[in-house]
Amino acid sequence: MKKKSLIWTLGLVAAAGLVPVFTSDQYILHVCVMILIYVGVTVAWNILAFGGILSLGHAAFFGIGSYTVAILYVKMDVNPWLGILAAMVTAALGSLLLAVPLLRLRGPFFALATLAFAESLRLIAIYAVPLTNGSVGITTPPTQGFALISFSSREPYYYIVLAMALIAIGISIWIYYSKMGYHLRASASDDEAVRALGVRTPRLKLAALVISAALTGAFGAFAAMYLFVIDPETNFSTPLYSIQPALNGIIGGMGTVAGPIVGAIVMTPLGEWLRTTFSGTTQGLNFVIYGVALIIIVRVMPGGIVSGMKKLYRRFRPENRSDGTAPDASGPIQPEQELANSEGGRS
Amino acid sequence: MNLLVQTLVAGLLLGGVYALIAVGLNLIFGVVKIINFAHGELVMIAMYATFWMWTAWSLSPYISIFIITPLMFGFGVLLQRFILQPMQNSSPTIKIFVTLGLSVLLQNLALVLFGGQYRSTTFPWAEQNFSVLGVTATYGRITAFLVAIALVIALFYLMKKTLTGKVLRALAEDRETAGLIGIPVKKYYLVAMGLGTAMAAIAGVLIGPFQSVFPLAGAHFTLLAFVVVVLGGLGNMAGSLIGGLFLGAVETLAGTYIDPALQQVAVFAVFIIVLLVRPQGIFGGSARNAEVGLK
């Protein structure tokens, strides 16, 4: 079974790599780049969700990343590739400001603290004009070249963000199956029981927060280079980069490996389509539909699309279960995986 | 010195309204055990209702309050009956998602229906100044404060002295046992949600005359109300009152002495500092805090 899933994975990666070969339509490529940015941010968001932690403030790390690369590049002439690395560091440092709420607050209260944190940073970005140019924002220079992450067509951007997204997914899978991931997932089910066993969950949660923030910062930095204009309302936008990744993750399947990827791939084109179809007078209608979708989906499929599909699959393929091996599990990890699939979304 | 007194008075007047919003959230929170992320949106709806009744029918906010409040009570009951009640036994995370979805839905519904612009209810009487001992405040703000405080005290009385209040407190303590001794749990959940929504709505009408409304206006109130509940303690109405006044003062002081753009940052900073110094909140947390996610 493991071999089969490996083949599937390689096939999907190859298909993703071939997208620019089959189409040179710049709009489709743009949507694909946005999908991959959201895959990255949602996967990063989901690393916290392994521990049952709900963040509604990833716009904070996204914005920190965007501003770091832009300020370094435009005002201090630092190469944007270095800027992306610097963005990961600053986003990680920024996340430490959330350490106290993370360790002192649970579930909804932490979610609210993250929301407030991101909003505070947005206001500071508007206020700190000498550094950020305030509401006007920063525009990156049009000089092109691979070294400056600036191109006239979308293909190179696509390959860069695809590589970044694959790295993020790799890190997420590695954490999920590592000891840290195992402890985090156990703490999502019952934090006190895990601590009673001697696992230092606060430290793990902090590590998850820092990793999640650093990855989000990298995608924020990439988005800054891709979109040329960095301003508080976009790069620190709560709907775009706090709510949307959470929505993707919840709808795909919070706390699972595949959930956020599926969620981002399904929701981003839907969002783009709704936005372009209902632009102008009916702006916001896409989020109205999102709100309704969220309410319905958590009622119908509390575990998200991925676990909903798994349930369907099992219902129609009962013979696979009779020999004692689950169709999607790999040997000894199976019990934990089952646990995470059913409990991962709860705190 | 005069500026300081003036600012403090303005802050406390606004804080009274915050207390009213927070008390409503505290009630929903304590009794129904729902973490209502859409609480601020309830305030926002009432603000829009105030604006439109004044603009379309010239109904003064102090008259329309008697129309909007019962309607919003009904809206709260409907929300509880058709959206929240079906998830009563789901995990806390699922409940958050549902109220979050509701918040996203209401914000953007307002955006679709009314557009993104700021709208002010310009009611002349509310803008007249009232001075005492060199301190000035508008009638609108004074009325808002007085009505809000009166309602907080009324709710206090309701919870302590009436049978309804006793039942609500029993539900907050232990839902199962309350059900066993024959309390119609679901019916009283409707009452609690209706009351909490009505309080948010009254707050929305009261601040209508001096704060502009826009689709995202509610988000700020949600945050404020949550911070107040953390500061004042879950189920602690007096704590919410004092917490509300305190946050109103903090916000206004930050607006005057630092920068109006950074008011919300100041609220967040206070929140973090309180968590650092007294994680259980200023007035101490009860054991019930753990139930909704406070450590």
UniProtKB/TrEMBL annotation, chain A:
Lipid bilayer topology: Multi-pass membrane protein
Keywords recorded for this protein, A-Z: Cell membrane, Membrane, Transmembrane, Transmembrane helix
Subcellular location: Cell membrane
Pfam families given in the database record: BPD_transp_2 (PF02653)
GO molecular function list: branched-chain amino acid transmembrane transporter activity
One term under GO cellular component: plasma membrane
Transmembrane segments: 27-48, 55-74, 80-102, 109-129, 157-177, 206-229, 287-307
Region named Disordered: 318-347
Protein name: Branched-chain amino acid ABC transporter permease
UniProtKB/TrEMBL annotation, chain B:
Domain of life assignment: Bacteria
Pfam families, alphabetized: BPD_transp_2
Name the UniProt record assigns to this protein: Branched-chain amino acid ABC transporter permease
Gene Ontology terms describing biological process: amino acid transport
Record key words, sorted: Amino-acid transport, Cell membrane, Membrane, Transmembrane, Transmembrane helix, Transport
Spans traversing the lipid bilayer: 62-84, 96-118, 138-159, 188-207, 261-278
GO cellular component: plasma membrane
GO molecular function: transmembrane transporter activity
Membrane topology of the entry: Multi-pass membrane protein
Main location: membrane
Entry's localization field: Cell membrane
Sequence similarity: Belongs to the binding-protein-dependent transport system permease family. LivHM subfamily.
